[in-house]
Design goal:
It contains 18 helices and 28 strands. The strands form six sheets. The chain has a seven-stranded mixed beta sheet. Strands 7, 8, 9, 14, 15 and 16 form a six-stranded mixed beta sheet that branches. By secondary structure, it is an alpha+beta fold. 25% of the residues lie in helices and 25% in strands. Helix 10 runs parallel beside helix 17. A hairpin with a 5-residue loop joins strand 14 and strand 15. The protein binds dioxothiomolybdenum(VI) ion. The site of dioxothiomolybdenum(VI) ion has 11 residues, from loops. Dioxothiomolybdenum(VI) ion binds next to loops. It holds the Pfam family MoCoBD_1. It comes from Stigmatella ashevillensis. This is Xanthine dehydrogenase family protein molybdopterin-binding subunit. InterPro entries: Ald_Oxase/Xan_DH_a/b, Ald_Oxase/Xan_DH_a/b_sf, Ald_Oxase/xanthine_DH-like, AldOxase/xan_DH_MoCoBD1, AldOxase/xan_DH_MoCoBD2, AldOxase/xan_DH_Mopterin-bd_sf.
């Protein structure tokens, strides 16, 4: 079989639908009788709602209902849900407690979005206030050990004797790094439309990263049979982790639909994205390193704190990469969480890896400086040839090649070792690098492929395309296995009526679904082969399966390619509406794996810092990545570009600030929360190192959704140090920190 379709730079199969406005996003459905909801948010950080004055809102034009903690319908499954400690706290107005500023405390339903929004502004709320915890540093003394998220083991690892090794070392680094709270800002704000088909059946159009995952939560909360809940999310305008779990607005849309007995649409404003759908928690990280005179690491201790809400146990697992990135005999990592009166934190692109590599890879740079060693050389010296955390081989690892190729494309050799060595007038020029990495994960997945009577195929899997190209690469995989052109394959995603698919999270979607899709498609093709060779009416009758080739929607004889027939002809003669292949792929649990799977890469960054103004401009970036088999050179490059730009935001601009007295997010729009724009981003040279991985999964695929964002902030901070001699250990690197 050819694999002409796997690998090349193909444009998105859904591109035309998107640019013509025909791809339907969650907020764009309009079921009959639909009305609109708007959320009322708390204005105090802690306490309880004493009374809400709703008369004015109720009398406002077009208003159908005003829900408050007093009259909101109860969630049938809430008690069981809340009893499960790994479930995130969802503020669904089941009681009058307030645990953060911005928490939903009311919902107004009206006949238009504008009327609902206006009426929501008329609600007056009186609170009983309580003292709030709003400062991570003040809370560190009372911090609690971090738990694992959603059943994952708690972060932390020990090998060797780090205390003794630190004490014995001649060269040490001991530094504290801080990353701010950050907020996901996908282009498409969250939206949900809830439709009760009857008392037991619910349909939710929802912007999310995995319909089956969202359904699991919803069916539990509402006490419904999972099969009676349908979640539809066909097109998604970016996810980054904030659309992995259902949030309060989705649940409130369902409760409101129940209350008014009509479909209810609830679309968040950009401002509400900053308080209702999670954030990346702030971290305070301490890294201690020690090395011998040759640069070999002898000790690595990485500890610290991340913020969480008063009610949640979510922790940003920033120490995970320190456990395994470098060959070091003495390692200790552990984490604590500080409870604050803030919303529920969640995963944000490279959760753990992005802020964790900022600390670790900055510290490595500091160590290189102390040792007067080239920072790239220091990383080569400490390369881990096997996974030192689990003491097992890698599925594949091409990091040294990423270093080599990246350094060459960047011209790293010409870099002076000393900082402040290059100047053009007022501008100091420097370069820095850092390692990027992300685990190669997989989730269970079922896929169905049908070859239809007209010879085309449909492939079904309830995975998600969050804007990254899943429709396209899955179509490529199926078309390749079926021997069909891309245009003859229709991919269906994002609906719980489709077979169980993975969450588009953990960079695991492509690696989870592609092998299942390939296997289902191969089965469907094999059935066609079997039908043909067993059928006396077929020109292929009597051949063995090996004698039959697939060619552009046709089966042909290997020996005589003029002999053959189309899929449509085979199905027509047999009077079959279709043939179907179905595959269920279940990943090996991590504890049973014999290898450790990670994608690795490296970023090389050049910055220009105006010494008088403190402004940092990125002038060049080279990123080299090795991530197993690359299915589509174009969408893969875009993934890495997006990841690197995400990292630039982390490095230079993004910071969610809360009012220190009221806990309200003060940077709740794109004027105050600064995302990198075109003028901030130079041309990025993305290079994929070829890597064949025989172990990671049947197709040798590692994820690429998040790795691009890891390591970038450290590479920038290291370049800023090289340019200016100033080490910035607190993100973002804004000009005030450089003056
Ligand atoms: Mo990603 S933070 O696993 O959506």
């Amino acid at each position: 079989m050819s694999s002409k379709l796997i690998g090349p730079a193909l444009s998105r199969v859904d591109g035309k639908l998107k640019v013509t406005g025909k791809a339907t996003y969650a907020a764009e459905y309009n079921p009959p009788g639909m009305v609109y909801a708007a959320i009322v948010q708390s204005t105090v950080p802690r306490g309880s709602v004493l009374r809400m004055q709703t008369t004015e809102a109720e009398k406002a034009p077009g208003v159908l209902a005003v829900l408050t903690p007093r009259n909101t319908p109860k969630l049938a499954g809430a008690e069981k849900y809340m009893a499960n400690p790994i479930m995130p706290r969802l503020a669904a107005m089941q009681d009058s407690e307030v645990f953060y500023n911005g928490q939903p405390i009311g919902v107004v339903v009206a006949d238009s979005f504008e009327r609902a929004t206006h009426a929501a502004s008329l609600v007056r709320t009186f609170y009983v206030e309580k003292p709030a915890s709003l400062d991570i540093k003040a809370g560190m003394a009372g911090a609690e050990p971090a738990q694992g998220n959603f059943g994952a083991p708690p972060p932390g690892h020990t090998r060797g004797d780090v205390t003794a090794a630190l004490a014995a070392a001649s060269t040490r680094v001991d530094a504290t790094y801080i990353t701010p709270t950050e907020t996901h800002n996908p282009m498409e704000p969250h939206a949900a439309i809830a439709v009760w088909d009857d008392a037991e059946h619910l349909t939710l159009y929802d912007a999310n990263q995995g319909v089956h995952f969202v359904r699991m939560f919803l069916s539990q909360l509402f006490g419904l049979v999972p099969d009676n809940v349908r979640v539809i999310s066909r097109y998604v305008g970016g996810g980054f982790g904030c659309k992995a779990l259902p949030w309060s607005h989705s649940i409130l849309s369902v409760l409101a639909a129940k209350a008014v007995n009509r479909p209810v649409k609830l679309v968040l404003t950009r401002q509400q994205m900053f308080s209702l759908v999670g954030y990346r928690p702030q971290t305070v990280q301490k890294v201690e390193l020690a090395a011998n005179a040759q640069g070999k690491l002898t000790a690595l201790r990485h500890t610290g704190f991340s913020e969480t809400s008063e009610k949640d146990s979510f922790s940003e697992p920033f120490t995970n990469t320190s456990n395994m990135l470098y060959a070091c005999p003495n390692v200790h990592t552990s984490q604590k969480v500080v409870r604050l009166n803030a919303g529920t934190p969640t995963f944000m692109r490279g959760p753990g890896e992005a802020p964790g590599t900022f600390a670790l890879e900055s510290a490595l740079d500091e160590l290189a400086h102390s040792l007067k060693l080239d920072p790239l050389e220091l990383r080569r010296i400490n390369h881990a040839d096997k996974d030192p955390e689990h003491n097992r081989p890698w599925t594949s690892k091409s990091l040294l090649e990423c270093y080599r190729v990246g350094a060459e494309r960047f011209g790293w050799k010409k870099r002076p070792l000393q900082p402040r060595a290059t100047r053009e007038g007022d501008v100091l020029i420097g370069s820095g690098m850092a390692t990027a990495l992300f685990p190669a994960m997989r989730f269970p997945c079922v896929a169905v492929t049908r070859v239809l009577a007209d010879g085309s195929a449909v492939v079904q899997c309830a995975a998600a395309d969050i804007g990254t190209g899943a429709y396209t690469v899955f179509t490529q995989v199926a078309a390749d296995a079926l021997g069909l052109p891309i245009e003859k394959v229709r991919m269906e995603l994002g609906d719980t009526t489709l077979p169980m698919g993975p969450l588009a999270g953990g960079s695991a979607s492509t690696a989870s679904a592609s092998p299942a899709i390939q296997s289902a498609a191969t089965q469907a093709r094999q059935q066609l082969v079997k039908l043909a060779i067993a059928d006396t009416g077929s020109p292929l009758h009597g051949l063995t399966e090996q004698d039959v080739l697939t060619e552009n929607g046709k089966l042909v004889s290997r020996k005589d390619k003029s002999k053959g027939e189309t899929y449509a002809q085979i199905l027509a003669r047999k009077q079959l509406p279709h043939v179907e292949g179905k595959a269920d792929s279940n990943p090996t649990p991590p504890e049973q794996q014999k290898h450790s799977g990670y994608a690795f890469g490296a970023h090389f960054v050049e910055v220009r810092v105006d010494e008088a103004l403190g402004t940092v401009r990125i002038s060049r970036i080279v990123t080299s990545m090795a991530a197993g088999r690359i299915l589509n050179a174009k969408t893969a490059r875009s993934q890495i570009l997006g990841g690197v730009i995400f990292g630039l935001g982390m490095a230079l601009t993004e910071e969610t600030l809360r009012d220190p007295r009221l806990g309200r997010v003060m940077t709740a729009d794109l004027a105050d929360y600064h995302l990198p724009v075109h003028a901030d981003v130079p041309d990025i040279d993305v290079h994929f190192v070829e890597e064949t991985d025989p172990h990671v999964n049947a197709m040798g695929i590692k994820g690429i959704g998040e790795i691009g964002a890891t390591g970038v902030a450290a590479a920038v901070a290291n370049a800023v140090f090289h340019a200016t001699g100033k080490r910035i250990r607190e993100l973002p690197i804004t000009l005030d920190k450089l003056l």
